[in-house]
Records
---
Amino acid sequence: MNHYQQTLRIQTTGKSLTRITRQIETTVSDAGIEMGLCTLFLRHTSASLVIQENADPDVLVDLENFFAKLVPESGYYIHSAEGPDDMPAHIRTALTHTSEQIPIARGRLVLGTWQGIYIWEHRQRRHHRELVVHISGN
Amino acid sequence: MNHYQQTLRIQTTGKSLTRITRQIETTVSDAGIEMGLCTLFLRHTSASLVIQENADPDVLVDLENFFAKLVPESGYYIHSAEGPDDMPAHIRTALTHTSEQIPIARGRLVLGTWQGIYIWEHRQRRHHRELVVHISGN
Amino acid sequence: MNHYQQTLRIQTTGKSLTRITRQIETTVSDAGIEMGLCTLFLRHTSASLVIQENADPDVLVDLENFFAKLVPESGYYIHSAEGPDDMPAHIRTALTHTSEQIPIARGRLVLGTWQGIYIWEHRQRRHHRELVVHISGN
């Protein structure tokens, strides 16, 4: 049993999903684990993780549009000092995921055909986001 | 430390929750792990995992009704070529879970008394869904 | 590779978030794992886990206000025998998290500067909630 850990620094763009499948696959490959588990952990509270469709980019636009409407910046929030997009970003993070797990088989993530891994930036401006990739297995 | 991995193929029914607690418990029992961790990973983007009440089936109906209203098929979505239920299914998946983890103690999942494990089918039609069960421990 | 498991019993207050970062850090420290993974699993379906901002307590109030409005107690639910707050509590749990994972490095959780770990009580009354902490690593 081995453990392997790496922190990736990902550049996002504002209010959109950035696909990171390839970086994670490279990290898994570097770890040399044949069978095991890959855990992703995002070190932020205004960006999150989702596993979503990787084929039609319109899906990503619809996701963003839906969440922008569900958690409007025009809503009333007590916590407003960091800008109108900050509290909605915290709520959107609570509604999605800070951690994700994907098993590894034959040295590769067992993602379905249509699954991609994304960081969802919930702030208006782009950010550098830190993602810890933890891999365990044999 | 051992790793054990199995892919289950689960038949769902449209727009409803299918309980899979028993299949997962059987898989854990087969793995022969006394103390460890069970990770579930669903290889799809229009169905998801939730851990929910296992007693009153009305809870499952209320969950489905709430999500049907929160993410209406009648909404405007750019991604509409795969039918009116497809984009809502992706959004409902983002709002729930693609992976879940349940610790194992004394050879069994540490589920609470009222917790059941469910696959939530978000499309109108039934599907076969692939669930990877990854178990590690001693 | 070692496994370590402990069940914490946490006292919540009604409809609010209780920070548990310190208890989890103590458990990680007790486990003596330098590099590994910490999994949290809440044994309930009307309370949940979130990783959220730890600085401004107003964020927690805004989170609660948003969810109270998104999943109103005044809504129509078939499952109503356990009180008007019970079915909304199940829905709020589905929208947030029953399990969370946080990698461990140099004996500590790799939480970001602004991240705290919370149990979110979704019922009106305070409860004792059981949280299983599973730690694996070297």
---
Amino acid sequence: MTATGSGHANGRADVAVVGGGPIGMGIAWRCAQRGLRTVLHDPAPGSGASSVAAGMLAPVAESHFGEAELTRLLVDSAARWPAFAAELTAVTGQDIGYRTDGTLVVTLTGDDQREAHRLWAYQQSLDLPITLLRATALREREPALAPRARGGALMPDDHQVDPRRLVAALDTALDRAGVTVVPQPVTDVSTLDAQVVVVAAGCGSATLTGLPIRPVKGQILRLRAPAGAVGFRHVIRGYADGRHVYLVPRGDGEVVVGATVEERGDTTVTAGAVLELLRAAADLLPEIAEYELVEARAAARPGTPDNAPLLGWHRMPGDGRRVLVATGHHRHGIVLTPVTADLIADLAAGADPDPVLAPFQPGRFTAATRENAREKEPWS
Amino acid sequence: MTATGSGHANGRADVAVVGGGPIGMGIAWRCAQRGLRTVLHDPAPGSGASSVAAGMLAPVAESHFGEAELTRLLVDSAARWPAFAAELTAVTGQDIGYRTDGTLVVTLTGDDQREAHRLWAYQQSLDLPITLLRATALREREPALAPRARGGALMPDDHQVDPRRLVAALDTALDRAGVTVVPQPVTDVSTLDAQVVVVAAGCGSATLTGLPIRPVKGQILRLRAPAGAVGFRHVIRGYADGRHVYLVPRGDGEVVVGATVEERGDTTVTAGAVLELLRAAADLLPEIAEYELVEARAAARPGTPDNAPLLGWHRMPGDGRRVLVATGHHRHGIVLTPVTADLIADLAAGADPDPVLAPFQPGRFTAATRENAREKEPWS
């Protein structure tokens, strides 16, 4: 990346992006491509939640009841991924581990099957691409699956990317695009000298903006197959005796196993979480017992009251200055990187908001928050 | 005295010890205390199997059918531990984590109980200190035990020490005693210029001596209790649905969970081993699910054909030179450190072998090995 101060030393930046995860880096890249002089602030780009993330691009599997608007955004962004990946690879010459082998959802027990079927029926009602499979068809596709596998579904459009490679490529792309990276933390956005400030600081966005973002802890494991040969090629998402787990196979022999979803902000790896993840994963794919356990990590996803991201203009509580916000991506930061980068860069360049952003306005909780506070008053 | 004399005149060492684990360091310490000029050779003292070991001093729990002579040695060495620990702490001022809270053996299922009872009856027949406990008495001693705990036994003389602290203290003691440490690997003991060479190189002793020592892989975990407060004080050894596991609580909040016993020499940590250790440990002590998983490691224990150590003089196959051997301690290296250090140092100083060493002569497998080779000839 360009050294601090070079190039822009005597001029105010057009855009200052706070936060160097894939979201912030993607936005900075798109801004620079639109001719905006862009500065990105992060003491350690790529070291946050994305360094722990599995990188599933799963608009279908991640579609849940009552989140139709989020599903539309996931589908929109997933559709942008092939071109985004191709462009990033072409610009940088770096492999980002983008794979389109599809996702298999697998159930083990009758209860698992019933739980999954409810969601599959909902996903089918939205016309999402999903094919239900019997156990035999499942094992034909992935012979390594446990004999216990009872049923499942193929989601051919649910893909994957390697977030660590993604961040490395975005780092190169920012350099090529002339983005300045300032490796300092930002504690007050009013100190930033730029026409437009974009806050894309994950959980750190809460104190920067006052918006209701909370940490949602996720614990995740990285395994490595003997001789680098993973015995399955689909992303496997399992319902295993009531536990949810996923296994993401990489081309280099790595398998990511995740993830817990915990309402706490620490990043401690606990024995219980590792036990539950390994138990569910080995119940689905027994061969992983022989895999090396390479890493166990935890990170904090930025969650919001409705689990959907905060995307758009926001007026700061103190000085009333307007900033752009792109955070609260929760479990969806990687899949939502292309659409977030494109549409936030459009806003930074002066465009009117794309209608797709309407449900994700950062201020949407403000009234509700006040009402909650009033309701609680008699009891406080 | 064979180990002194003209050696002093030309600056030659009296004793060269190859291997800087607790065994080699203990021997070197005792040799120096006997006035022998001692050199210890190890590129990285304390970095072998002992850095992974749990440090149980368990002459009773580790007494198995058909190993009566080994049991006598374990009991002998365990009896030396209080004085050994006191002396080492007094000399160095360092805490080695020596704890005498005793060991509780716990069973979960009827099958576990029957398996354990067979061994307890054998251990009682040897007059070893062991008290059988009902489930209620067990939980009175350790309320954190799972409600499933069915029965158990108290072994009050089975203690523990922290092997990493032990090695650190021995390092200081060697320094105080004037032992020279040469941080270079030794590949050929004939190159060592010393009156007496002691091979205490763990699994590395096989190629140095030609003796039948094989690696026995052990995988082990280190957990940490929240706020450093471990909810139990005994060493817990469990029979958990047919799986054997132990949990060793330290004063600093660490809990060591181990260990696999695998006939292989690699040091890869596998998902399956971590899963089985955590499952059994959490079945015994549910609270460990909330503990931090700090470390997962594997190391190779030095095993022998009869799982007993090799202790005494050995004639080298090449030049016929006699060397002292102290290796093959398998799962018992830490508990056997004091007796090994005392008796091997006696031999290095010219004493006749203590009768307790008779069953552990390094050459005891030679005839059998030749016979095996002859028997195989017709088929080769």
